[in-house]
Design a protein that fits this description.
Elements (H helix, E strand, L loop, with lengths): L1 H15 L2 H21 L7 H11 L3 H34 L1 H16 L2 H12 L3 H25 L3 H9 L4 H39 L4 H10 L3 H34 L1
Helix pairs in contact: 1-11, 3-11, 4-5, 4-7, 4-9, 4-10, 5-7, 6-7, 6-9, 7-9, 9-10, 9-11, 10-11
């Protein structure tokens, strides 16, 4: 609970420190407008036109429903990845044999391109939610698994011995010694896995479903509707940036302080 209060207390200063990021966003829009002036509306609509299209789409119930569907698939798949990746990674980190045996499997999962998993999932499960969620889990699981494994394997023996010598209760050792160290590894892995899940879910929807933001992007592509396509991209990017920089980044900063 103190951890949560500390995050909320430091949040205003965190927002103030983000002026550089805001400036970079304005620079990005300036470069975007320059590209519009060079290449024209068909290739790259202006930021103003894209934002205008986005405003109209925000009042469209079907677009809102597609966004909800995409969020559900992304977070459901991400949740499964966090659950199984964290548990199995912690278990593998406790046993050297399990850690060694898991390395080839993780290498296979990381090395296989997500597009290949999407194709295989379409063959195995058909067109629908399960294909998208399966692809998200397979792509995100190794990231979480490795983070949990590294957090467990890198626990210092001196810390364990200190806990034993002071005869600390198990819950005290876990909360004050083991948990901060493991969490400092596993939370950044969760953040990375969430970013992966968000990218994969849109790609999978584009290829394998008839609803969601990815499917809407496929329709915009078929109609050569560049403003709508860019507006959908803005929805995806802004959603991801809000989750990462407003919700997760303050927590991550506190976690990094624990590590230091």
């Amino acid at each position: 609970m103190k951890f949560v209060f500390k995050i909320l207390k430091d949040f205003p200063s965190y927002l103030w420190s983000g002026w550089g990021a805001i400036a970079s966003i304005f620079l990005f829009f300036a470069c975007w407008d320059l590209g519009y002036q060079i290449y024209g509306e068909l290739v790259l609509p202006s930021p103003l036109e894209t934002l205008s299209t986005l405003w109209v789409m925000s009042h469209n119930d079907s677009v809102i429903e597609d966004a909800k569907i995409t969020l559900y698939r992304a977070f459901f798949g991400f949740g499964l990845s966090v659950l199984f990746g964290s548990i199995l990674g912690l278990i593998a980190g406790l046993f050297a044999t399990a850690s060694i045996m898991s390395r080839p499997i993780v290498t296979i999962l990381v090395g296989m391109p997500p597009i290949a998993w999407i194709v295989l999932a379409m063959i195995w499960f058909g067109m629908g939610d399960f294909t998208v969620i399966f692809t998200v889990v397979v792509a995100s699981f190794p990231i979480v698994f490795v983070g949990a494994l590294q957090g467990t394997r890198t626990l210092e023996g001196d810390l364990k011995e200190m806990g034993k010598s002071f005869k600390l209760p198990l819950h005290v050792k876990f909360l004050d010694i083991y948990f901060p160290h493991i969490f400092s590894y596993i939370f950044p892995a969760w953040v990375a896995a969430l970013g992966m899940a968000w990218k994969i879910v849109v790609m999978a929807e584009l290829l394998s479903t008839s609803d969601g933001i990815g499917a809407a992007l496929a329709v915009a592509r078929s109609h050569l509707d560049t403003p709508t396509a860019l507006a959908l991209v803005v929805i995806m990017i802004s959603s991801m940036m809000f989750i990462e920089y407003i919700i997760l980044e303050p927590i991550k900063r506190e976690v990094e302080l624990w590590r230091n």
